[in-house]
Request: fold
Amino acid sequence: MIARLGVLALAAALAWAVLEPAPDRVELAPRVAAALHDTGAAHPVTAVLLGFRAYDTLLEVVVVLLAVLAAAAAPAGAGAGAAPPAPASAVLRAFANALVPVMLLTAGYFLWAGSTQPGGAFQAGAVLAAAGVLLRLAGVTTPLDVEHPGVRVGLVAGPAVFLAVFLSGALPELLLLVETLLTVSIAAALLGLFAAARR
Amino acid sequence: MSAGLAYALAGVLLFCLGLQALLAQAHVLRKILALNIMASGSFLALVGLAQRGGVPDPVPHALVLTGIVVAVSSTAFALALLRRLAAESGRTTLDRDPAP
Reply:
């Protein structure tokens, strides 16, 4: 009862905070627009992600990597009794066959569009990982093995190259390369998390 | 009231619904889902507040993009921990350990 009243009071306070206009708002959008050309990106969100807040993005990718490591280090154990996956239905397989090529195309488009329109490495990586999950559920592929050397290189390539390019100061010129590798790493990390959580 | 404000208020509502579920539900899976709903609520509030002035502010949008990926990763880790807990102890709640 007390908890319920507390949540109601919090809801009222938060609603008031949302409705109350901030007294001295700083308009960030014009500042971002003014400094856009320094980042090599033509879309403001991409400019913030890989330009003004690049540290944030780098550490975020590292957090994802850490989550993969942690999830792989905490296996459910022998007694988990994970039910063997049921054989995928023909409908699901046909669905995956039809959808996965479109998803790959969409991921490539998001990556390419990211510099001038909404899109970028995170969206492309998420769509790519979703395609991988669909293939896994349809029984087409085996679970991603995060201990495989190639997979490890894929996991680390994005953040490592991002850090190297960032430190060398060539980020505005090499933005697309960094975004491409980040896409691969994010997709691999999300698939690795999916495999670890299902094991 | 602008559409941005309506989204922000819906985000507040989602956050508080998630908080209530986090406090009230004992099963860890439900707690993880509640945390996800709270995260979605705060993302919605941030994005809504970012465009109440008409032109969307790119900085909160980028923050939310970062937050979504971290939320997905932490959810997957929490699920792995929950499965480990269930395998080790057979429990799916976070009650205090029974007295030895």
